[in-house]
Structures are given as C-alpha cells and as structure tokens.
Amino acid sequence: MQASVDIEALNQQIQIDSAFLDKINEATSKVIVGQEYMIQRLLLGLLANGHVLLEGLPGLAKTLSIKTLSNAVDAKFSRIQFTPDLLPADILGTMIYNPSKNDFTVRKGPIFANFILADEINRAPAKVQSALLESMQEKQVTIGKETFKLEAPFLVLATQNPIEQEGTYPLPEAQVDRFMLKVKIDYPNKEEERQIIKRVISGETAQVVEPVVKPDVILKARQLVKKIYMDEKIENYILDIVFATRDPKSSGLSDLRPLINYGGSPRASINLAIASKAQAFLNRRGFVIPDDVRNVAMDILRHRIGLTYEAEAENITQENIIEKIINTIEVP
Questions:
Q1: pTM for this structure?
Q2: Tell me, what DSSP letter sits at residue 121?
Q3: Which of 132, 174, 138 has the alpha carbon at shortest distance from 267?
Q4: CB of 209 within 8 A of CB of 71?
Q5: 59 and 161 part of one domain
Q6: Which of 6, 18, 70, 203 has its CA 20 to 30 A from that of 12?
C-alpha cells in the first residue's frame, strides 16, 4: 500500500516536473521537421546521463538536431569536427608558455562544454578517440599536472557515416560500449521532406531557437528519473534479455548460438535499466513497464553484440538478433 501511495505521489511530481519536455519539443520543431525519434533519443540520453552515438547518412539533420537541443537547454555547446590530423590536445586542451610570467598556463579545449558534438567521430585516429572516450567515462580531464572536473550536464553526442569508410578509423568495441545509445537515423518520409522543402524555400525555418530550459532543470529531472519505481520482475526481464545475448541456448534460442560472437556487457544491463526509467519519465509515468524496456532495448544493445563470420555471411544483423530475443523472452 505504501509503495502505491509513493508511486502516485511520484506520478504527480513527474507531471509537474516534466513540463519542460513540451517546451523543448516545441522549440526543436521550429527548426527540425520530422525526426521525432532522434529528438526523443537525444532527450533520453540527456535524462539518463548517457552519451549517444548517431549513425546515419549526411543531410539527415543529426548535427542540426544536437545544436538545436543545446540551444533550447541554454547549455554551452561545442562542435568538434573529427579529422585524421586531429590531436588529443585539440580536444582536451594543452599547456601554453606565458613569457610575461615565465610559466605555463592551461588553455582548455572544446571538451569543456555541456554538449559536445563529435562530428564524424570515426574519422579521427585511435589516440584522439580514446582521449574523448576517457573524458566521457571519467567526466574529468587532466592537462599537465592539473585535473579539471567537467561541468554537469556533460553529454557527448557523436555522429558517424555508415557508408563512407575510406579514411575512417572504426571505433573499437570496448570504446563503443561507453555510449549508452546507438541510434540509427533514417530518411524523412515524403510528407516531412515536402515540409522541409517548403520551409527552406520560403525562409520560414528558424535558424536558432531561444533557450526554454535551464541546465538546473535537467539535473533536477535526472534525480527524479532515479526515483522511478522498477519492480523486481522488470529487473529480471532486463537480465533475461541481456543474458540471452551471452548464452542464447539457456534462453531457448539455440539457433542464435552460432551467430553471436559475444553478448552485452554488464553496462548493457545497467544502461537498459536506467534508459527504461528515463523512457518512463518521457511517458510521464512514475514506474517502469515492460514496454519501456522493449522500447529502448534495440538502441542499448545493437552496438554491444558481436556477430560471427557465419552471421555476416548470412547477412544477419544485430537488429535481427535483438528482435528475436525480445520476441522470445517471456514478458512479465
């Protein structure tokens, strides 16, 4: 009885504290046509304090969506265009000699912002990628002998082109695992593209949105997300899904065993639980239901499952495997 009372109070609190979502959606819609799924996933990463990797062809508004969201949240935005000649110091910062003081001073790099857009992250060499990913994990940067905490909220939103692979450095599996979500972006539908053409031709598209939310509101919402109730049955459901990627045979999916090289790490279970809570918040609910887990499972797991040569030869994708697991595991 006590739990139900608490959930009811939490529901009411979420209804009040989630009002900013409508403001953000309204602001972003002035610039972005369609791509609601991408915007919702960016918001999910923001609420769950998880980094997002967007994969899609050029021209699908990945960069524009990230910049628009940062403007709406009144946060400091920094765009880093990854190129093969980039150095770690170009991202983190470096020590600069000051002749007047006869001393070295720290010059901070573009990593010192709230929203980091890592554009075409797979175009930079491994040393640069690892420098960025260390900042993502530790939420701090060391320059010389000084260590600097990165200001919250700190969110890395990276993009990569799945088609053009010449001159790229694919992210190693262990580093991709640090992204909470890997979201695949598709083309807009015909009606959305018609609206895009009309807006651009008429000049009606807003270039920059006005801030509608302060970063403090996001940090407060994150605390509320942590309080969202998750039943033990939902926890077991999450574990069943993740363990099915590691040992499909024990889950009655023996046919997947030859297709999976390795399954989701413990980060998969943790992120699936946190993202499910954030999804419940986006749905203005104080408790997690199985649909929340199913909704986010694809984006949480697709970059955490390794395929065997047999799977690649048969053109079987991570999405095919995840879909089969979700459709097979018993829903509580």
A1: 0.87
A2: G
A3: 174
A4: yes
A5: yes
A6: 70
Which residue range is the domain that position 239 belongs to?
Answer: 229-328
Q: Is residue 223 part of a domain?
A: no
Residues 238 and 204 in one domain: no
Domain count, the chain: 2
What CA–CA distance (Å, rounded) separates 301 from 331?
18
Note the pLDDT tens digit of each residue in 9-23: 888 888 888 888 888
Instruction: Show the tokens assigned to 51.
Output: 């980094």
The per-residue pLDDT for range 211-256, each reduced to its tens digit, is: 888 888 898 999 999 999 999 999 999 999 999 999 888 888 888 8
319 assigned to some structural domain: yes
Is the pLDDT confidence value at 128 over 80? yes
Handedness of CA 139, 141, 146, 148 (dihedral sign): negative
Residue 39, pLDDT score: 87
Query: How far is the C-alpha of 316 from the C-alpha of 312, rounded, in Å?
Result: 6
- Amino acid identity of 321? I
